[in-house]
């Protein structure tokens, strides 16, 4: 089962991997979709939302510890399938590191060891840490409107602890989009020059 959490496409020279990372209702999905369209590539949706929405619709139950591995497996399955279809950029609307952060936050430091292992081993070229200057929107799954600032600090601390390359994404939708495009295009240029 553990191998299902491993990235299958690791040829970094062919595909730039970008992750959107941050608290709930901070604009990850909106900008992910915009960028995938702009770069004419695929985007990996947040499987946790799909899985937990179905669970809520079917039984009005929230996430528990037993859901963590199926969520992680579903996320990596979607990412690995999308990576085979991506052109020069793969846009991920979350990854295993986000699942790890939420797991540890909601379950008093608990996270399955397999998720922790691959959250650290799977590689991405850039993280966009989404700031909380977006309006919090209620839905069936979101439940911490007053803890977004604390969550933002936790997410940023995780990126720093893992020594990951990241940029903070804030401002209006147009500002976020333009900033992200600029950073991705710069990385694509760097990558192209590195393989000449």
From TrEMBL:
Organism of this sequence: Ulvibacter antarcticus
InterPro entries recorded: NAD_biosynth-regulator, NadR/Ttd14_AAA_dom, P-loop_NTPase
Molecular-function annotations in GO: nucleotidyltransferase activity
Domain (NadR/Ttd14 AAA) ranges: 17-172
Gene3D superfamilies linked to this entry: P-loop containing nucleotide triphosphate hydrolases (3.40.50.300)
Alphabetical list of Pfam families matching this protein: AAA_28
Keyword field contains Membrane: no
Keywords: Nucleotidyltransferase, Transferase
Stated name of the protein: NadR type nicotinamide-nucleotide adenylyltransferase
Record has Transferase as a keyword: yes
Species lineage: Bacteria, Pseudomonadati, Bacteroidota, Flavobacteriia, Flavobacteriales
């Amino acid at each position: 089962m553990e191998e299902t959490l491993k990235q299958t496409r690791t040829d970094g020279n062919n595909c730039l991997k970008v992750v959107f990372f941050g608290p709930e209702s901070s604009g990850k999905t909106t900008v992910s979709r915009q960028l995938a369209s702009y770069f004419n590539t695929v985007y990996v949706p947040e499987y946790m939302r799909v899985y937990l929405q179905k669970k809520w619709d079917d039984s009005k139950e929230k996430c528990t510890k037993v859901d963590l591995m199926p969520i992680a497996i579903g996320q990596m399955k979607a990412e690995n399938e999308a990576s085979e279809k991506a052109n020069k950029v793969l846009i991920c609307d979350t990854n295993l590191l986000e699942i790890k952060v939420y797991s540890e936050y909601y379950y008093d430091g608990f996270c399955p060891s397999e998720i922790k292992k691959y959250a650290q081993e799977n590689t991405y070229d850039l993280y966009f840490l989404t700031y909380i200057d977006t309006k919090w929107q209620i839905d069936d799954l979101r439940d911490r409107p007053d803890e977004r600032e604390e969550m933002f600090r936790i997410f940023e601390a995780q990126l720093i602890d893992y020594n990951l390359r990241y940029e903070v994404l804030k401002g209006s939708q147009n500002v976020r989009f333009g900033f992200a495009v600029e950073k991705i295009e710069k990385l694509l240029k760097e990558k192209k020059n590195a393989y000449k």
